[in-house]
Amino acid sequence: MSQAAKLELEDEILTMGIWDATEVEVEDEGLRRYINLDNVLEPRSKGRHQDKQFYKSDVAITERVLNRMYTAGHRGDKHLVTSGHNVGNSERLWNTLEETFHIVEEERNRNPIQVLTDAIGNSAPREEVVTYQRGGTRARKAVIVSPQRRVDLALRLLVQGAYEKRLESDDSAAQVLADEIMLAADEDDDARAVREAQRKEREAEGAR
Fold first, then answer.
1. Quick one: which of 57, 59, 30 has its CA closest to 145?
2. Quick one: which of 102, 106, 100, 67 has its CA closest to 174?
3. Which uninterrupted H or E stretch holds 3?
């Protein structure tokens, strides 16, 4: 296939065949290198990036949301809330994410991937607290969060927040996730992700 034909084929590929992720602007300059806005038709990279040190940055952001949805109930080292009905259901979760994007687009009249990246930026804490051993005592210290960890935390908090609300709501999973993303994009602390990010930053400020 000629280079021109390859470029033409790439131009025709859209995320889920509908939205163009390449049109999205990441406003947080610190996160731009770590939010991959490639268009993907199939949400499974099948581990082809995993041998690279920072492979997550090579995975499209929509696929990373999907990967987090598999274990939406996971906290720390345990599944405090079961994720059993999500695990392995790639097609169903991808359909849920597509429906979520349709809801966001209809309510905001914007590219839903742009709203998602805005939500990630508002849910990604810049500082957090770590605990370390000093002699016989444990001390707390404020540290700067790396850009890749900021994206990881934001995705985890967004999906966990939506999952918790879904378990208490009669709304569909897509509607609840869409609401959580839109609240976070507005930096509304009704979104668990925004609330947790703000809490981490307050704790870090107090530990300086």
1. 30
2. 100
3. helix 3-12
The secondary structure element, H or E, covering residue 123 is helix 112-123
User: In sequence order, what are the residues at sequence separation of 6 or more whose Cβ sits closer than 8 angstroms to the Cβ of residue 17?
Assistant: 41
Is the pTM higher than 0.85? no
* pLDDT single digits (tens) 122-174: 999 999 888 877 777 877 888 899 999 999 999 999 998 888 888 888 889 89
Going by DSSP bridges, is the β-strand pair 127-134/78-79 parallel, antiparallel, or unpaired? Answer: unpaired
Whether 147 contacts 187, CB under 8 Å: no
CA dist., res. 117 & res. 112, Å (int): 9
- DSSP, res 92: H
Instruction: Work out whether strand 127-134 and strand 137-144 pair parallel, antiparallel, or are unpaired.
Output: antiparallel
Residues 3-206: name the CATH superfamily: Ribosomal protein S7/S5 (1.10.455.10)
